[in-house]
Design a protein that fits this description.
By secondary structure, this protein is an alpha+beta fold. The protein folds into three domains: 101 residues; 58 residues, no CATH class; 193 residues, Alpha-Beta Complex (Cathepsin B, Chain A), CATH 3.90.70. It is 32% helix and 27% strand. The protein is built from eight helices and 17 strands. The strands form three sheets. Strands 1, 2, 3, 4, 9, 10, 11, 14, 15, 16 and 17 form an eleven-stranded antiparallel β-sheet that branches. A four-stranded antiparallel β-sheet has the order 5-6-7-8. Helix 5 packs across helix 6. The protein is globular and about 60 Å long.
Length: 378
């Protein structure tokens, strides 16, 4: 699924604008002021990141526009999606949390904002996943943001509500939906835990990013082995492990064979080690650390890993919906950032499925998830 496209604003953002007007009509003037504050926060974040990293080059002097309003399961706005626009083209997106979360930047990436599926696409998904044959489908009644990767468009079909995931394109009854993100109270507690885990660094700031990029080829884009390729070619191309499999397609095929699909936490690390040991030089100094549960304070362990040059595989929450048996989703962590005088902690990732090399995710927002850190014994 090709997400990373630079598209003309007038074409790509028309459905976004129409939904924003509906949301504002329901929320009134206060909602418009909140979106303005969220946009100001996202713009300030974008300018800091662009100045700090210098890439993607398209982000430098980009502006946020075209707000898309997302709600929680109770129908309350909880996040605002903005397109990054530069010279009339979309060069990325920023997702900012609502006032109840304190306007954090939940996510930002170099892909365009996720689109509202076309009517024909929605009808096809509903028939495939739910056995519903619909002759006509209208606009979604609302959009839901339930956590990383959990963006849904809600439709009324035959007196019931159905949800279509905007990223992974599956359908499920809306009654099956569950939040995969912390409540505002739990989120603030996680931020507090992250901050207090390293109180001596409160007055400092930090940033580091490894040279990693997403991998995705036709018929080779399962997220588990694809993120493994991102990590493997980092070691091969930048760390002196020249005999790790090349071309990348061969490495992918080897990892997919070892990992299986869907890729589960238990076989990610062993599959990667097997790949390194089976290469011509039989590297046996690779290892991995398996963290089954990570919390706010574990952020600083990830900082140390990146500083050691060790990238990380992160499994985002499972999509356990009865009518949508989708696999867990893997991304690769390649960097981190924490700004001076602030308490937000971001990780920089590659996401092969959405074809993003610069994906920033708020650490305190992603919840408890399995992690694998590929390490070097020597």
């Amino acid at each position: 699924m090709k997400k990373k496209l630079l598209v003309i604003l007038a074409v790509s953002l028309t459905p976004i604008l129409s939904l924003s007007v509906v949301a504002f009509a329901a929320g009134g003037e206060v909602a418009e002021k909140e979106v303005d504050l969220a946009q100001d926060t996202g713009q300030a974040w974008l300018e800091r990141i662009a100045a700090l990293t210098g890439e993607p080059l398209e982000w430098i002097e980009a502006r946020l526009t075209a707000p898309q309003v997302y709600c929680d399961l109770k129908g309350q706005p909880n996040a605002y999606m903005f397109a990054m626009e530069k010279e009339g083209k979309v060069v990325g997106h920023v997702l900012v949390g609502s006032s109840s979360y304190g306007y954090p930047v939940f996510e930002a990436g170099d892909a365009a904002p996720v689109s509202i599926p076309s009517p024909d696409k929605v009808k096809s998904i509903l028939e495939r996943d739910l056995g519903l044959k619909v002759e006509e489908i209208g606009e979604p009644t609302r959009l839901l943001y339930l956590g990383f990767g959990h963006l849904f468009a809600i439709y009324k079909v035959d007196q019931q509500e159905v949800a279509v995931n905007q990223i992974f394109e599956f359908a499920t009854p809306a009654s099956n939906l569950k939040a995969a993100m912390p409540s505002p109270e739990d989120y603030k507690a996680a931020k507090k835990a992250t901050r207090e885990a390293k109180p001596e660094l409160l007055g400092s700031s930090g940033y580091n990013s490894l040279l990693m990029y997403y991998y995705c080829e036709s018929r080779r884009c399962y997220c588990g082995p694809a993120s493994g390729v991102s990590i493997g070619r980092y070691y091969r191309d930048h760390c002196g492990y020249d005999d790790l499999p090349s071309p990348n397609s061969y490495m992918y095929d080897r990892l997919r064979f070892e990992m299986g699909v869907p890729t589960t936490p238990g076989n990610y690390g062993p599959a990667f080690i097997s790949m390194t040991e089976d290469c011509p030089s039989h590297y046996n100094n690779f290892s991995y650390v398996n963290d089954w549960i990570v919390t706010g304070g574990d952020y600083w362990n990830r900082v140390a890993d990146i500083d050691n040059g060790w990238p990380i595989a992160l499994e985002s929450p499972h999509f356990y919906y009865p009518d949508a048996p989708t696999p867990p989703h893997w991304i690769a962590i390649r960097g981190y950032q924490y700004p001076r005088g602030e308490i937000q902690h971001a990780i920089r990732c590659t996401d092969s499925y959405t074809q993003q090399s610069s994906l920033w995710v708020d650490w305190d927002h992603i919840g408890w998830q399995p992690l694998f850190t590929v390490t070097i014994k020597d």
